[in-house]
Design goal:
There is one protein chain. The protein has 220 residues and is α+β, with helices and mostly antiparallel strands. The chain has 2 domains: 133 residues, no CATH class; 66 residues, no CATH class. It is built from 6 helices and 5 strands, in the order E-E-E-E-E-H-H-H-H-H-H. The protein has a 5-stranded antiparallel β-sheet. Strand 3 and strand 4 form a beta hairpin. Helix 3 packs across helix 4. The longest helix is centred in the C-terminal third of the chain and has 19 residues. The chain is globular, with a radius of gyration of 22 Å. The two termini are 34 Å apart.
Length: 220
């Protein structure tokens, strides 16, 4: 799978913390020093140039999102006073770049035609830029299922962000209000025989005002 940039900006020479996608759930900084890996507990930053007190990989985290992990890289780069990895385990000091990693294992994306691959990878990268850690899985559910998984996830994350901005003592009441509102919007409100209209919460395709007839259901 071709690499996909996780963040835009300057090239590697001026932005060593720019992330390059190696495979699903694994990114490497442009200078090769740090890897950002996804695990069940969240995202972890691995300093491939330093070790912990046991001589093992120096790992920071977990962080809730890829973006949050990426934002800590400059801090780890400047603050780390951990011992360096033995020379045999590090890249040559002659200035040569590390050998490229082996190609990632084949995935479902490799079975798509070229146009679909480009579109899927663009969508995954866009989701990851918003902080969605399991972007590839969300996109696959969106393609394979009847429900708009991407649109649903974006709405859920935005509602969760609203709650996160509240004081802790206000969140329980607000969470219940958000849940009840989501149920009302998702219930459909199909018009009856009277004069009142109904409603539907539907997905809109990019660049189009016509819904593709996929309804968003926020009820859990």
């Amino acid at each position: 799978m071709a690499r996909t940039k996780a963040a835009s900006g300057a090239d590697g020479a001026s932005d060593p913390d720019r992330l390059e996608r190696q495979q699903a759930g694994t990114y490497r900084t442009a200078d090769g020093r740090f890897e950002v890996r996804e695990a069940d507990a969240g995202w972890f930053v691995v300093d491939t140039d330093r070790t912990n007190e046991f001589g093992q990989e120096l790992i920071h985290g977990p962080y809730g999102t890829l973006k949050a992990a990426r934002n800590t890289l400059s801090e780890h780069r400047s603050a780390s006073n951990a011992p360096k990895r033995p020379a045999a385990k590090r890249a040559s000091s002659s200035g040569k770049r590390r050998a490229p990693p082996p190609p990632p294992p084949r995935t479902w994306i490799d079975d798509l035609d070229p146009a679909e691959k480009r579109e899927v990878r663009r969508l995954i990268a866009a989701l990851e830029a918003t902080g969605v850690g399991d972007a590839e899985a969300v996109v696959r559910r969106d393609r394979d299922g009847l429900l708009p998984a991407v649109a649903t996830r974006l709405i859920e994350d935005r509602l969760a962000a609203l709650l996160a901005d509240l004081a802790p003592k206000e969140r329980d009441a607000a969470r219940d209000l958000v849940r009840r509102t989501a149920e009302i919007l998702s219930s459909g409100g199909a018009p009856g025989r009277g004069p009142l209209p109904g409603w539907a919460l539907v997905e809109l395709a990019p660049g189009s005002s016509e819904p593709p007839n996929r309804r968003v259901d926020l009820r859990s």
